[in-house]
Give the backbone structure.
Amino acid sequence: MKLCDEGVTAANTGDFDTAISKYDAALRMRLGAYGAGIVYSNRGVAYNSKGLLDRALSDFTEALRLHPGLVEAYVGRSFAYISKGEIEKALDDTNEALRLDQNSRDAYHNRAIASLNKREFGKAVGDFSEAIRCDPDNAGLYVERGNAFLADGQCDAAIASFESAIRISPWLAEAYWERDFAWERRAYKLLNKGIKAASERKYDEALKFYSQGLDSHPGVRNHAVLLCNRATVLGYLNRREQSARDYDEAIRLDPNFFQAYYNRGINHRECGRVREALQDFAEVLQLNPKYAPAYVDRGAIYVRQKRLDEARADWVNAVENIDSIEVEQRPRFLNSIAWQLATSPNSSCRDGKTAVRAATQACELTHWKRRDYIDTLAAAHAEAGDFASAIDSENQALQFSEVSSREYEDMKGRLRLYQHQQPYRETK
């Protein structure tokens, strides 16, 4: 027993080689089955700690042969089985340990780990809770349960478990890290819920989700994104001043957040603050020179200010960088740019070659199923001087059955222009 106690002391200090040598020496003594079973089980624990799993399994099996009711041996062997990935065998051992002792903290703990391996998160949470019942002051168990809650998507429950760990051990850094990660997960989930609601035009609901996300934790990495998205929703609800404050705060938190500058620029424009809008669009393009939406919107302002050369340059840049726009949005942007470059009454705004390129892309992206986009392509061909292609495209657009009588007459009028070798111009 003296050698066994020395082995336990060495193991508790992490000196597993010394512990094993002490257990070896004890086993060379004349021991009864009860005592030998305990020593074999202890040596199995040391082998587990060194990663010598087959030796550990052999020792635990021998311990149970000598001492069939030894709960610690079932627990230790279940750990070895978990480490080897033999989860069902581990579960058999933890179940037997708990049949023998319903208050075995380590058996509940190992069964929880086994359930995590099977992605049975609800069962894992339940067993961690039972382990906590057996050892309510063990902060590490609360952390592990928090992680199981997180894996099960229960962010609020995870945060509460981490908070319990912090109350028990305020110095436990892991609990703080995991709690902050849980706050991040919660904020991210609420962000996605807000995005979904906003996409369905449920703006009040989106506003609620974004606000809940912002209340999650002041240090969330998604804080600026949540602010920017909430600001956009506030704009849709025509609460422009509140929207501006959220954009300002998002930019303060992340001065390189170019999407926030862009959205704030749109907000300024809607409020009639054109100079501020241009400043924000310029900042966007300083941070991301390939961001096409900023070129498009700045170009539109330049047209109203009669800065036509600058407007055309922005639209050409937008076409060059169209990949920065989400795929589903590209046809709309390309068609709008192509129409401006093809039909503007101001020659400084027109660029037939770029208009053809943009309109063709719009038609290709929509599989030539949009009548208005094909109509734009016809106007682009005419501006480029290719009237034969303009006539072909306009005739193609006229074949669409859903064309209204007004649209049909407008397109027929453009067709007659192209047949007379004349491009179409928007009226001033």
